[in-house]
Amino acid sequence: MFRDKRTRRETNTLYHTGASQHVRIVDIIGGRGMRQHLSQLGIGIGDVIFIKRNAPFGGPILIEHNGTEIAIGRGVAERIIVEEETS
Amino acid sequence: MRIAFVGQPNSGKSTLFNSVAGYKSLSANFPGSTVHYTFGKARVGGEIIEVVDLPGTYSLTASSPAESAAKQYLLEKEIDAVINVVDASLLSRSLELTLELIELQIPLVVCLNMIDEAERKGIHIDAAKLSELLGVPVATTVATKGVGVDQLFYVARRVARKRELPSSEILGHKDIEDVFAELAEHINGKIASRFPISKRLLAIKLLEGDEAFLEMADEGEKRLVAHYQNELEKTHGRPADMVIASERHALAMELAEAVSTVTKPRRDIRDTIDDLLMHRVWGYAFLFLIIYIFFALVFKIGALFEGPLLKLFDAAIATLGAHMDQGTLLFALLKGVMQGVAGGVAIVLPYLVPFLIGLAVLEDVGYLPRVAFLMDAFMHRIGLHGTAIVPAILGYGCNVPAVMATRVLTSPRDRTIAAVISTLVPCSARMTVIFGLVAFYLGPSWALGLYVFDIAVIAASGKVISLLMPELTPGMILEVPRYQLPAIRSLVSKTWLRMREFVVVAWPLLIIGSALLALGEFYHVDKIANVALSPLTTLVLGLPIAVGTTLIFGVLRKELSMIMLIQALGTANILSVMTPQQVMVFTVFVMFYIPCVATIGALVKEIGTRFTLYTIVYTFFLATAIAAVVRIAFTIFSVF
Predict the structure, then answer these.
(1) Given B199, B334, B474, B489, which residue has the most CB atoms within 10 angstroms?
(2) Residue B275 forms part of a structural domain
(3) By a Cβ cutoff of 8 Å, what residues of chain A touch chain B?
(4) Looking at the domain assignment, is residue B484 inside a domain?
(5) Is residue B277 situated within a structural domain?
(6) For residues B223-228, average pLDDT
(7) In which order are the strands placed within the sheet that holds B38-44?
(8) What DSSP string runs through B438-494?
């Protein structure tokens, strides 16, 4: 499920990506607890997620993945590295 | 026969449990609402079965206490079968837990719940094929409508009786499986006898770095675990736990894809509602509107009943007085008991019932996680994150479930802060004091003002405590479930469950308390207590000396302090003996001082004795300080 050979696209943190976009998670820079919590909700590296909305004042990001909606706080979102998915 | 329900949060476990075992388990539309197990008995085909509802858990790798409670139970208790409740519309994610349960090698049935919701989302699942691939029976249900529940239990009973174990082995990539197998061969120590599960699962748990297992391993095993962890990390370029997690993730995804066909989902009205309620600007407007309407309705409905009912009881007491010798002990006792009954019927129930129904609706609809989303940024200002708002909101109902709900938070520091500030949330008992005294005698806008003021105090307290406990919190990761139409049965049972607390526990206390106070008055014992407390009540707060005893009763149950106030002052018309300013000072003090006995009990359990003591001392001084400031401010600006 991982595409190994491909041209590098621009990466960004989930927090700094605008709403209404499909992105692919390329890395999760965080402690074990955070990674596990995300993986329990069915979110891991390589997954394509949809950024549904973001809250103002440095608030959380709402993402959708496989029919689940998950609110992700800023601190966590800043540690999820994503790249734009053009499909 | 004992059957346990296991499932991810919000999979409909508790709903299913309730439909077979009567209404004993609280369900709510947010993750982690079941924080301890609930037992029940169900009659299936003429046989009584013991059913256990375990806390929702995403996986057997626990990250919050609610989850480790479920894990603990599965590993240690005798269970004849497990029903794995799966939200069919979230199949891929849910199967990750199912895969772990299969590893446990216990009789298992997979229950594909909310199959109607999945169809609506355009996900069609081939249950027979899933059953074949997993090697366990699969039943489909719609728990909210009771569809398929009988069949599910029929299968579960069969599986339990014949001890049918999962029949297929679902393996991942060879290199990873080899590591599992090699490590499994070397596990022999006390850990193997401690946990009666397969060696392979033990190996997986150890490699994942699960604390509960690691601490049982001996030195040699720990060294081996570290060795294989390194190997996995070297070959896959990621920590071992991540390798295992993504392996399971991929397996679950493959399985889900193999059994489901996806068609275009029907966009329904709920998406439009979310566009409004979670909007960057309108979301907040709606939040305030919803809360305003909520409290306005509770007040309107409550006030409708309070006035007439109070008159009725006052008249009854007057009639009694006219027909009896007022100097006798019997009269004093009867009057005390009647005032106790009056307090419950006329002042508490009119506000409590609509409030609890409203809170149950908000919970079941699924609005609370949306509030967490909207308020996350604000909660960060006070050193917490959005998830902590869920216990805080529950606190408006009762502080006890609020303190217990702090378990949804993963960091101990967050739990402590959330628990402490939850006790500052005016629960429904204190709401009856605020509404019954301040709103009723001084006007609803004063009551609203108190609520706003309370939020400011909570914010300030949160800030102060988080400065005292500086630590980076991991931040919010919270599932936001779909809106659901609340089921009437669930609303009724939830309201009743919470109200029963009052009717069964508080009311008798209240009547006995009233009688005791009347008795004390008759023999002038209350005077001693009142004099002892008078430095606080009269000197600092400027209240009538008679309120002393009421504050003692208030520690038992908050609403007692108001009802006993009526008893202590000897009239239900408070304004004839207290000034508006005194009513305000009294209410403010009652709002913040010392959590009630039940809350103290919950605090001890959740955050320990030391922090509970801190909380008691803190709230007492906070209440005294704020009430004194209110007194001085109102005098200076001569408000009333």
Answers:
(1) B474
(2) no
(3) 1, 30-42, 44-46, 53-60, 62, 66-77
(4) yes
(5) no
(6) 89
(7) B38-44, B47-53, B2-7, B81-87, B108-113, B138-140
(8) IIIII-HHHHHHHHHHHHHHHHHHHHHHHHHS-------EEEEPPP-PPPHHHHHHH
> What whole-number distance in Å separates Cα of residue B323 and Cα of residue B477?
66
> Bigger pLDDT: B438 or B31?
B438
Domain ranges for chain A: 11-84
- Counting the structural domains of chain B, the total is 3
**Is residue B356 domain-resident?**
yes
Domain encompassing residue B134: 2-162
Q: Does B410 touch chain A (CB under 8 A)?
A: yes
φ, ψ (nearest 5 deg) of residue B410: -90, -30
Quick check: B18 and B97 in contact, CB under 8 A? no
Count CB atoms within 10 A of the CB of residue B348.
30
Label residue B458 by pLDDT band (50, 70, 90): very high
Mean pLDDT of chain B: 83
Span B72-88, pLDDT tens digits: 777 776 788 999 999 99
Q: Which residues pair with A61 in a beta bridge?
A: A54, A72
User: In the CATH scheme, what is the homologous superfamily, with its name and number, of domain A11-84?
Assistant: Ferrous iron transport protein A (FeoA) (2.30.30.90)
Q: How far apart are the first and last CA of chain A?
A: 16
Looking at residue B36, its pLDDT comes to 59
Q: How confident is the model over B241-299, as pLDDT tens digits?
A: 888 888 888 899 899 989 988 877 777 788 888 888 988 889 999 998 998 898 788 87
Distance spanning both ends of chain B, measured CA to CA:
66
CB A76 to CB B373 under 8 A?
no
Could you tell me how many helices (H) and strands (E) chain B has, helices first? 29, 9
User: In the 3-class helix/strand/coil scheme, how is B330-391 assigned residue by residue?
Assistant: HHHHHHHHHHHHHHHHHHHHHHHHHHHHHHHHHHHHCCHHHHHHHHHHHHHHCCCCHHHHHH
- Does pLDDT of B595 surpass 70? yes
Q: Does B58 touch chain A (CB under 8 A)?
A: yes
At B77, list the tokens. Answer: 């208790």
Same domain, B308 and B253: no
- Residue B575: CA count within 13 A, CB half-sphere: 10
Condensed to tens digits (0 to 9), the pLDDT of residues A13-40 reads: 888 888 888 999 998 887 777 887 888 7
Phi and psi (nearest 5°) for B516? Answer: -60, -45
Within 10 A of B542 (CB to CB), how many other CB atoms are there? Answer: 18
CA B195 → CA B95, B190, B203, distances in Å? 23, 9, 12
Between chains, do B249 and A41 touch, taking CB under 8 Å as contact? Answer: no
